[in-house]
Amino acid sequence: MKKIVYYLFLYVFFSMFQFIFGRYVNVFGIFPNLILIVVVYLGGLGRIIYVELIGFLFGLMWDVFSVDIFGVRALMFTVIGYLVGKFCGDFNFDKIFAQFVVVLFANVVYWFCFELIHFIIIGKVNYMLFFVDVLCCMKIIVTVLATPIVFYVLGLTDDKRCVAK
Amino acid sequence: MCRRRKKKYENITFLILLSISFSFIIWRFTPTVKLIKNLVYCFSYSSLSLVDYVFYSSENLTKGIKSIICTSRENVAYKQKNLELTDKLRNYDAMVRKYDDLLKLFKLTKVKNTISVFARISIRDPNKWYRWFIINKGEKDGLYNELPVLVFSKKKGALCAVGRIVETYGSSSKVALITNAAYAFPVEIKGKGVNCLAEGLDLNLLRITYIPCDADVKAGDEVVVSELSSVFHKDTPVGVITNVSKEPSVDFKTAMAKVFFETDIIYEAVILIPEIKI
Q1: Residue A13, domain member (yes or no)
Q2: B155 with B250, same domain?
Q3: Helices A96-121 and A72-86: crossing angle, nearest 10°?
Q4: What's the mean pLDDT when you consider all of chain B?
Q5: Does residue B99 sit within a domain?
Q6: A105 within a domain of the structure (yes/no)
Q7: Which of A50, A51, A64, A143 could cysteine-pair with A42, CB 3.0–4.6 Å?
């Protein structure tokens, strides 16, 4: 019950932060993908079922607020949460470098799969996404840079980290 | 065993969520979700506009109440003022009645309350010397058309009729002289009670017409404004008769009168504005 309340709190807090705060406080539309960081963090705790569900719900909410294909983000966050949860044993999330690498990887997967699904569904794809689209690159960089802060804040609330074995 | 079961649940959950997500994508739920979202936005915005309207209305309502309170205060003040003025008016009416009674009792003439405006003659055309001139006072000074214009005659020692205002501008007015050929006004022979008409000739003379044949009118008689005049006050000096025609076959006699204002050089004129009675 305590866990459910904790995840519910995380869900509400980060949803508000991402969709309401991020809507008004951004630089040229660039705002860190806090939801992705949270999903990675929760995946790092090793609670795969929770992270799958919370990722799915986060994605679903984002899909509702966005004008893209409905269900894409729900799929992305579910997959990322599952993968991070599965491979959490291979990374030491207490190290900032590991956080950077995992979030960067998750980000690249996120954008790549996003464009892939767009290509499959709509038939359009931006091949030079990561090289030419400065905005997309900046989004990834900002998200990666914001990772240690978000991890630190989340660490204050939950110290039962899945330590690398 | 427990760990394997946990992994199994994790995988099953993952597959369920994955299939749900794929079903969302494949079944193209986007339009439906957009529709629902738009509906939600529509209701949200309508409620927002409603709130905005409520705030706007309340603001207006507050202003309205404030203005009503201000108006009621003003009304109270005006009511008090009105009562004071009504009392004063009652006193004034009583005084007027008393004044009229006294006038009747002592057989006195009623003094007309007028405001005198002094004006300088700014333009007088030599070619139309006896027709009109322009004075330097106009609407700003309270002048309007049909007001009597008088000048002070040194020889007579009184204010004499000169003309009437025919055109009024902001700070000037045009005065048609009584000697203007297009002008005629009722006069009487002073002391003889003979009513007649004075007509302009574009000269320094007036033709006095409609003098009854049996009237004792002779040269040297003074001509004053009759009570019938709507412009000038009664008994305002006009001129003096110079000669009287003697034609026995005609019912009326005609006389010529020289105007008083001609004897002096006119610089200033007086315009009499009757006070408006409340």
Answers
A1: no
A2: yes
A3: 140
A4: 84
A5: no
A6: yes
A7: A51
CA distance to partner chain B, nearest, from residue A77 (Å): 10
**A67 vs B contacts (CB less than 8 Å):** 34
Q: Which of A45, A52, A66 to mutate to test the interface with B (most CBs of B within 10 A)?
A: A52
Q: Among candidates B60, B178, B202, which has minimal Cα distance to B127?
A: B202
Task: Give this complex's ipTM.
Answer: 0.77
**For B14, nearest residue in chain A (alpha carbons):** A52
**B187: which residues sit within 8 A by CB, 6+ positions away?**
B195, B196, B197, B198, B208, B223, B224, B225, B226, B229, B238
Confidence of residue B118 (pLDDT cuts 50, 70, 90): very high
Residue of A49, A63, A72 with shortest CB distance to B9: A49
Q: For residue A71, which residues of chain B lie inside 8 Å, CB to CB?
A: 20-25, 29
Instruction: Compute and round to an integer the Cα radius of gyration of chain B.
Output: 44
pTM of the model: 0.45
The boundaries of the domain holding residue B249 are 113-274
Tell me if B25 and A71 make a contact (CB, 8 A cut-off).
yes
Q: With 90 as the cut, is the pLDDT of residue B165 above it?
A: yes
Decide if B29 and A71 are in contact by the 8 Å CB cutoff.
Answer: yes
CATH code assigned at B209? 2.40.10.340
